[in-house]
Write a structure and sequence with these properties.
CATH architecture of the largest domain: 3-Layer(aba) Sandwich
Order of helices and strands: EHEHEHEHHEHEEHEHEHHHHHH
Strand order of the largest sheet: 3-2-1-4-5-6
Structural class: alpha/beta
CATH superfamily of the largest domain: NAD(P)-binding Rossmann-like Domain
Radius of gyration: 20 Å
Number of domains: 2
Number of strands: 9
Helix content: 40-55%
Strand content: 5-15%
Largest sheet: 6 strands, parallel
Shape: globular
Length: 298
């Protein structure tokens, strides 16, 4: 009988908990790194996971290490910091980064891991915490064929679609472009809703028309749950993370280089919403930020 790879997991937050839960429930030995929010950690321990006290300790106890943290600064801190992954790295180990990261940082991290004999793949995600819990995420992959083939059975424990994007860094580029398109759509929906509210257009009528024509989108349907029913849980992604992701996108466009008029405008909109005090709110609350800016009640 083939022994399953030992999996390490850093970042058991909104997305990471569901991923880690599916990994351990489908028979993989799992070790997680402690988190300031103990609830998801304790839940995974009850399901059979172990707990490491540092990234280095986790790396020593794992064959494959997943990162699912906020962005590149957090990735680099876990890799290069005191008691970081590099201190526990050994030949043959794989680090898979599910975070939304800057491609230049991805290549820097991958090179450092390769110097220790390890391997790296970028494996960012699409969909929401709900699909993470259900094991129905979409994963983009970047890296060499042998490493990705080794990762594939583990990815399949929490993803129903896995798309190969190309070499190292390609998946993180694809993720930034995807997120820009999604968040730009969200920004357009929020602006349209505020204009509809202020001009007296019935929002239910607007929604019925929009979902029946060319204005339909996943973001519109998620936002409709908020502006019609007050439920923002269909898009559990904070506005501060929207600002971070759209800034990463503009960095990518600048480095390419491509002109990114809309990217800059969308980034500034999310930055403004954060300054207004909505940074820790989910993205549908962009409607509230624009309502406030336009002198409308919530």
């Amino acid at each position: 009988m083939t022994t399953k790879a030992r999996i390490g997991f850093i970042g058991v937050g909104l997305m990471g908990h569901g991923i880690a839960k599916n990994i351990v429930e489908k028979g993989y030995p799992l070790t997680v790194l402690g988190h300031r929010n103990r609830q998801p950690v304790d839940d995974l321990l009850k399901r059979g996971a172990g707990e490491a006290d540092s990234p280095a300790d986790l790396a020593r106890r794992s064959d494959i290490i997943f990162l699912c943290v906020t962005g590149s600064p957090q990735v680099e801190d876990n890799v290069f910091g005191r008691n970081g992954l590099l201190e526990g790295m050994a030949p043959g180990k794989i680090v898979a980064d599910c975070s939304t990261a800057e491609p230049t940082s991805t290549l820097k991290v991958a090179a450092a891991i390769a110097e220790r004999g390890g391997r790296f793949a970028d494996t960012p995600l699409v969909r929401t915490p709900k699909e993470a819990e259900e094991g129905r995420l979409v994963v983009m992959t970047g890296g060499d064929a042998d490493t990705l083939a080794e990762l594939q059975p583990v990815l399949k424990t929490f993803a129903e679609v896995v798309v190969h994007a190309g070499p190292l860094g390609a998946a993180h580029k694809l993720k930034l472009i995807h997120n820009f398109l999604a968040l730009a759509t969200a920004a357009a929906v929020a602006e349209a809703i505020v204009t509809a509210k202020k001009s007296g257009v019935d929002l239910k009528a607007f929604t019925d028309i929009a979902v029946s024509g060319g204005a339909d989108s996943v973001m519109l349907r998620r936002f409709a749950k908020y502006y019609l029913d007050g439920d923002d849980s269909m898009a559990k992604f904070t506005i501060v993370n929207c600002a971070k992701d759209t800034r990463y996108y503009t960095h990518l466009a600048e480095a390419t280089p491509t002109v990114a008029f809309l990217g800059e405008a969308v980034h500034q909109l999310y930055t403004l919403a954060g300054i207004q005090g909505f940074g820790d709110k989910y993205v549908p609350r962009l409607i509230d930020a624009l309502s406030q800016l336009n002198g409308l009640p919530k």
